[in-house]
Amino acid sequence: MKLSTFKVLDKKYSKFPTSKDIQDTDDFKKYQDALLNDKKCIDWTLKRQIKSAGLNPDKYCCLDMAYHLIEDKKTKRKTKINYDSIMLTTKRKEFGIPIHDGGTSFIKINYCPWCGHKLYKSTTR
Questions:
Q1: Section 60-83 average pLDDT
Q2: Which of 19, 56, 87, 105 has the highest CB neighbour count under 10 A?
Q3: Contact indicator for 85, 75 with CB cutoff of 8 Å
Q4: Which whole-number Å values give the CA distances from 99 to 22, 87, 113, in the listed order?
């Protein structure tokens, strides 16, 4: 699917909830297929979500890493632990997988779980 077509369909179908009537249309099925299988459409959607969360997708090794840090960013705005967070960064620019035991423990990682890029004490490529 052309990205321009996907963007038009995204405006139409990205609002939830979606009625059964809409879900049965060919356009909606094409939209869903592109959302799941078309790399250009997937990347555009991820970038939009990352930017709307206040993160710069260009600062990370891959879009998946940046996307999975959205929940960590939300957590830093409040004092409660966010159990939806599966990836975090520290003030020392380290990356880790949080241990959801009620504390702030995490397992430090040295490589991106999605693209395999070596993670230095910097978020830049």
A1: 82
A2: 87
A3: yes
A4: 40, 10, 16
